[in-house]
Predict the 3D structure of the following.
Amino acid sequence: MLAKDMRTGAMRGFIVKHKAVFEKAIIAFAKIVPEPTKENTKYPNTHILMDIRDKFFELENNPGRKALFEAAWKVLIAEYEHDPYYRFRLDWVLEEIQKSGWRERPAWHPVRSEWNEPLPEGLIQFNIQLPSEVIDKLRERAYQK
């Protein structure tokens, strides 16, 4: 499986090393990109992206990834506003996601220690009846680092 190869296999060292370079490049690039605001942008979908970004940062609780996420959102929003080439392709991708049957994330994800969403996190709920003490233990496990 690809995920296993990238996390624990021979590719792990390569991925970790080069991923860090890529993350630093995104952050560096974002520093020279003008800050998009609702006052200096005109497209309605750009404003929707900003609202989604703001909601994302209300929930995100991982300081170690904050700079990367801020940079990625800034570049995404600025490119969406600035360049129709990328804007219309992103629109197409989002349209395809809506039509595709994209699966929702499981309950209790992302993990509570890194995400401030009210319980239960995630949209998929399991249609089973478990005693409350079992559910509590599952939640405790899900939130452990």
